[in-house]
UniProtKB/TrEMBL annotation:
InterPro entries given in the database record: Bact_HTH_transcr_reg (IPR050679), Tscrpt_reg_HTH_GntR (IPR000524), WH-like_DNA-bd_sf (IPR036388), WH_DNA-bd_sf (IPR036390)
Protein name as catalogued: GntR family transcriptional regulator
Top-rank lineage group of the source organism: Bacteria
Domain HTH gntR-type: 11-79
Record organism: Streptomyces spiralis
Length: 290
């Protein structure tokens, strides 16, 4: 019995498939130029209808992640890219994506992440992957400290913005639902690591600032900075109900990130950028957020 037949109405099933496929593209399970499983296989794996799978694939196609051709399947044409002068970016056999940076951070005894983002969708996918590694005994961090800055809920944002005013509330509610869902997921998965005595010290703080995010920022273990601007695009947004709304939006998961690490020269471009972005985060966290 699929989830759609249990009174859920298809919304929960749509979210489950959508979030899992995004997570697999983000962590390199489905690398660029690879093909996704067939619609039949995906429907069977997730216990959902073919219609749900088709709606999810349509959304991923609109967002530029995949291209679908009848008779050929769906192929990944984009994933998150990181440009870096550091050798670390090339260590992963899956290429330069966010996954190896988060993985290496969690391999340290103490993990410190400062994140500024529009939603917590990307980070949630990566943290859940690290939680699985911790439960499997592959890594054993003693402390995880996460500080995340999100835009104030009451702040009118320029994106996502419906091209038709009558759809404005639908897109606003969708954005808030995505943020709330992934924020709760992050809190929950990290709290479980502590209650299960897998990580002795877990500190999660989430604040909101009256700023529209124009870029995504990760400060990792107070040593590395990943930075990427949000690119505004016009695309159809697929709602859980299957309705499509034409909108201006940004693709956070697909933003190209640049990697900066401080070196022995505090005046080098990389050191100066990493230091300035860490100082920027601290100033907003301390003086503007709530």
């Amino acid at each position: 019995m699929t989830e759609e037949r249990t009174g859920d109405g298809g919304g929960r099933a749509f979210r489950k498939v959508s979030e899992e496929l995004r997570s697999r593209i983000a962590d390199g399970t489905y690398p660029r130029r690879s093909f996704l499983p067939s619609q039949r296989d995906l429907a069977e794996e997730f216990g959902v209808s073919r219609d749900t799978v088709q709606r999810v694939l349509r959304e991923l196609s609109y967002e530029g992640w995949i291209e679908s051709r009848q008779g050929s399947g769906s192929r990944v044409i984009k994933n998150q890219r990181i440009q870096s002068s550091s050798a670390k970016a090339s260590r992963s056999s899956r290429g330069a994506t966010l996954a190896p940076f988060i993985s290496e951070a969690f391999e340290q005894p103490e993990v410190a992440l400062d994140v500024y983002t529009l939603t917590s969708e990307s980070l949630d996918a990566h943290i859940r992957l690290q939680a699985e590694r911790i439960r499997a005994g592959f890594i054993r961090p003693r402390r995880i400290a996460l500080r995340m800055l999100l835009p104030s809920i009451s702040l009118p944002l320029p994106y996502p913005r419906a091209m038709d005013d009558k759809d404005a509330d639908l897109l606003r509610d969708r954005l808030h639902a995505i943020t709330r869902r992934h924020t709760e997921s992050l809190r929950g998965v990290l709290a479980e690591l502590r209650t299960e005595d897998l990580v002795p010290d877990v500190d999660v703080q989430i604040r909101h600032a009256p700023l529209t995010p124009t870029f995504k920022l990760y400060v990792i273990n107070e040593a590395e900075v990943l930075f990427g601007p949000y690119e505004v695009i016009e695309r159809p947004v697929v709602l859980e109900s299957g309705e499509e709304i034409r909108a201006l939006d940004v693709l956070g998961l697909g933003a190209t990130l640049t990697h900066h690490v401080g070196d022995a020269d505090p005046d080098s471009p990389s050191s100066a950028f990493a230091t300035s972005m860490q100082a920027w985060f601290e100033s907003v966290w301390t003086l503007l957020s709530e």
